[in-house]
Specification:
By secondary structure, the chain is mostly helical. Helix content is 68%, strand content 9%. The protein has a three-stranded antiparallel sheet with strand order 1-3-2. The longest helix is centred in the last third of the chain and has 73 residues.
Length: 214
């Protein structure tokens, strides 16, 4: 039985001009290597319990053959069976990636197991890609935070220099005013005119002036 899954890439127009298309294509092209890695195959076998699942779903004639081999040579350990299953999975699981499409397929003896293998391979790839993207974003944010911290320190340093220069200028102005006040000549005295006293007319003078006027 053959089972496959297709993953289509939808380019976000908001990322065009910032390397978004190239990043999406590059990450998708590397999907085949990620899926076929030995560690990833071991994870699929462990997560799906493929050793026991495949043994329980083998055709009756092959199950009879397994029992005969077990009686003749003894039961194979789970670790040895898992290592053998990795080699089997390498030959039966494939991944093909193009610019905007990823195809994951598997050929297996029963359709249910083939579906489980393909689904787990796809899930593992999406999870690994999500982890890588989150790590890249976190690294980028860390770089931006570092730049922001450096810029903040630089702004604070410049503000302190401006404040120090302003305080120094005020101190120089105050010192200059003190020096000018100390060296200034004393103020001139204010000249005042003496008061003129007008003599008061006597009663005889008033009477004489009235007689003249009459």
């Amino acid at each position: 039985y053959h089972c496959e899954a297709k993953l289509m890439v939808e380019i976000n127009d908001a990322l065009i001009g910032h390397g978004g298309t190239q990043n999406n294509v590059a990450s998708l092209r590397g999907a085949a290597n990620v899926i076929s890695r030995h560690e990833n195959l071991e994870e699929i076998i462990k997560h799906t319990d493929l050793v026991h699942l495949s043994a329980s779903r083998r055709p009756p004639i092959l199950q009879l053959k397994d029992r005969l081999v077990e009686k003749l040579f003894g039961k194979i350990s789970d670790d040895d069976a898992a290592r053998a299953m990795v080699w089997t999975l390498e030959t039966r699981l494939f991944a093909d990636a193009t610019d905007q499409q990823l195809v994951i397929g598997a050929d297996w003896g029963d359709p249910q197991t083939a579906t489980v293998i393909v689904q787990n391979a796809l899930d593992n790839y999406l999870e690994s890609r999500h982890t890588a993207e989150i790590s890249s974003i976190a690294e980028y944010i860390s770089i931006l935070e570092g730049h922001a911290s450096d810029l903040k320190n630089e702004v604070e340093s410049l503000a302190k220099q401006v404040q120090d220069a302003r305080m120094q200028r005020r101190a120089e102005v105050k010192e200059k005013l003190k020096e000018d006040h100390a060296t200034a000549p004393p103020p001139l005295p204010v000249m005042r005119r003496p008061a003129v006293q007008i003599p008061r007319e006597s009663e005889d003078s008033i009477a004489t002036r009235a007689a003249i006027e009459a």
